[in-house]
Every structure is written in structure tokens, then in C-alpha cells.
Design goal:
Layout (H helix, E strand, L loop, with lengths): L1 H17 L5 H24 L6 H26 L4 H25 L4 H26 L2 H8 L4 H12 L4 H22 L1
């Protein structure tokens, strides 16, 4: 239940980030971090069944870690932080492995209802995470920047330019100074 609430909250805050709504990015960070935290620490409990073998415990922990890495990659991509590609590729690969193993094990345990539901849960979550991570990986970062800052295309292009320069400190300071000057000028014109 808590997992579903966090997913809904993450989706709503993601939409809010690109509308843009004030502070939606912070809500996105919090919801994605909590979701990653739940999968990382409680992956075993989310997927466990009553009679859990060592292999199933390992698969539960492995899937939880895979989902955490994928969620971290999505968070990094949306927030334009470095390291998103590595996290997304790792998350996709590990989630795909968890899904593949679960599909094989599910086909072998068709007569055991408990194990079938256990594997269905991992397959469903893995499929969703692999699909969404793939979409995030395919989205060009520069287009996400242009979408977020569509009301200020000059700022968007300055951010893209700084990112291409590998984020040199003076580049970001120039953006900050120029953006603050533009805001002050707009306030002066409004008075």
C-alpha cells in the first residue's frame, strides 16, 4: 500500500516538476528516495512468501537492489545529476535478470499457488521498472531541460551549454548572476 502511494506521489511530483510547480522537484526527490529506500531495505519483506528458500530470499534481495538502482537512475536523470546513465543501465540489466529468473522459476512452480504469486510480484515490478527505465534512458536530457525551462529558453540553453562544458564552476556562477540580474530587472520594470 505504502509502495503504491509513493509511486503515485512520485508521478504527480514529476508532472509538477515539468509544469513547473514550485518545490515539485523536492517532492520528487523525497518520494523517489523513499521508494528506493523501501526496495533496498525491505525488498526481502515485499516479495517474501511463507515458505521461503535461500534462493528466493536471494532473489528478493537482488530484485530490491535492482529496483533501487533503477529508481536512483530515474531520479538522477530528472534532476540532471551526473551518473544517471550508469544507474539506469545497471538498474535495467539487474531488473531484467530478476524478471528472467522469476519467469523461469514461475514456469517450474505452476502447481504451487504461493510461489506463483511470489514470482508474479517480481515479474510485474521488474517489467514496469525495466519499461519506465528504458523510457527515461531514451529521453534526451537536453530536451528535458528545454521542457522544464520552456518559459525561459535562454536559461535552458545556458544550462545545456554549461553541461556540455562539464559543469565548470564559473559557468554556473555566470548563469546564477545573469539570471538574478534578469529577475531584478523584471521586478524594476513591474514597479
Amino acid at each position: 500500500m505504502f509502495e503504491k502511494v509513493l509511486v503515485v506521489f512520485a508521478v504527480l511530483s514529476l508532472v509538477g516538476k515539468f509544469i513547473p510547480l514550485p518545490e515539485a522537484g523536492i517532492f520528487f526527490i523525497v518520494s523517489m528516495c523513499l521508494l528506493a529506500f523501501i526496495y533496498f531495505l525491505f525488498g526481502y519483506f515485499l516479495f517474501k512468501e511463507k515458505e521461503t528458500s535461500f534462493r528466493n530470499k536471494f532473489l528478493s534481495v537482488f530484485a530490491g537492489i535492482a529496483f533501487t538502482v533503477a529508481i536512483s537512475g530515474m531520479l538522477f536523470k530528472v534532476m540532471f545529476w551526473p551518473g544517471w546513465a550508469e544507474n539506469l543501465v545497471g538498474g535495467i540489466a539487474f531488473s531484467f535478470i530478476a524478471m528472467f529468473v522469476s519467469i523461469r522459476k514461475k514456469s517450474k512452480s505452476e502447481n504451487n499457488e504461493g510461489k506463483t504469486n511470489y514470482y508474479k510480484g517480481i515479474i510485474l515490478r521488474s517489467g514496469i521498472i525495466v519499461s519506465i527505465s528504458g523510457i527515461f534512458f531514451a529521453l534526451p536530457t537536453n530536451e528535458l531541460i528545454r521542457l522544464q525551462f520552456r518559459k525561459d529558453p535562454k536559461l535552458a540553453e545556458m544550462i545545456i551549454s554549461c553541461r556540455e562544458k562539464n559543469g565548470e564552476e564559473d559557468c554556473w556562477e555566470e548563469i546564477k548572476t545573469q539570471h538574478e540580474n534578469e529577475i531584478l530587472q523584471k521586478l524594476d520594470n513591474a514597479q
